[in-house]
Amino acid sequence: MARRVAALPDAGGVWHKHGVTSSRRPRPPLDRRDLDELALRYVARFATSRAKLRSYLLRKIRERGWTGDEDPPLDQIADRLSELGYVDDQAYATSLSQSLGSRGYGHRRVAGAISAAGISESDAAEALEFAEQRAAEAALRFAKKRNIGPFSAASADRPKREKWIAAMIRAGHSFALAQRIADSEPGVIPEEWLIFE
Is the pLDDT assigned to residue 140 strictly greater than 80? Predict the structure, then answer.
């Protein structure tokens, strides 16, 4: 039986045991203008926080190097883009809270994601309050997605109920809320929950 041979690389690459690598010359180190362009391209493509933008630029400097005599002006670039409205930590935190809540994640999970994005407490306050107000709604979304409690086909035995509660806690919901939903009878959805049908 004939062995399959991988396609040969195009003229721009070199073949070696790990696959095709580029034969292009390394890109030159970055200067201030390059950093500005990278930052603009990044914020044009992605919603981001100041800290994430700074981290992205720092990674690019590590990859390519820096030509300036002084430290790269990462904070100045982030500040300028923030002043122009291209980066808004408060709006980013709110968007993150709404997105995670609509996917069924709870307050603790939202708080963790906001913290990981490097958003200050003052910029995160409104988003965290939103997540707290929508805690039950997010928990019910999660329960429906995972067939937990009122959305399950049958009553759960103790080990299954404990798994449901553990899954809800991992998703960032409080123990009390997870327990209340896991203890609900299958198919018995209170009127205020009917929006999830």
Answer: yes
Residue with tokens 């809540």: 101
**Cβ-defined contacts of 119-125 (< 8 Å, 24+):** 119/49, 119/51, 119/89, 119/90, 119/92, 119/93, 120/89, 123/89, 123/90, 123/93, 124/89, 124/90, 124/93
Which alpha helices (DSSP H) does the chain contain, by range?
Answer: 32-45, 50-64, 74-83, 89-102, 107-116, 121-133, 135-146, 158-170, 175-182
User: What is the pTM for the complete model shown?
Assistant: 0.77
Q: Per-residue b/e over 68-83, b at no fewer than 16 CB within 10 Å? A: eeeebebeebbeebbe
* CB-side neighbour CA atoms (13 Å) of 11: 0
